Amino acid sequence: MSVRDDRGFDSPQFNLVRLVRQHGRFLAAFLQTQTTLVALCWVSLGWVALSSGISFSQAEEPRQGKAKGLQAAEQDPPVKEAVAHVSDTGFWTSPMREVDTATADQTLLVIVITDDIDPAWISLDKTIRLANRPVCWCETSITKAVAAIPPGFAHPSAPIEGQHWPLGIPKVLTGGESNLPPGRTITVVTDGHYRTLGVIVGIPEDQELVRLIEEAEETRGWLRQHRREPDQLVKKLAERSRQRLPRIWQLQLDQQVAALGTTPLEQVADAISQNERFTKQVQIRFGQVADQVQHTYKQHIEQRFGMTPETDFRRLVALEQHSATRMPWMTTLLPFMAGADLRNVYLDLAETVWDQRAMPIQMQGKDPLGDWLTQFGDQGPFALHIPPPYLRNRTELQLAKVSDIAQRRGFGWQDLDEALGNGPVRETNLRELATWLYRSKKRPLDLQRPSQTRYLFFRSSTDSPYPIRDGEPPGRSITMIRQVQK
Question: Region (Disordered) spans which residues (predicted)?
Answer without folding.
Answer: 465-486
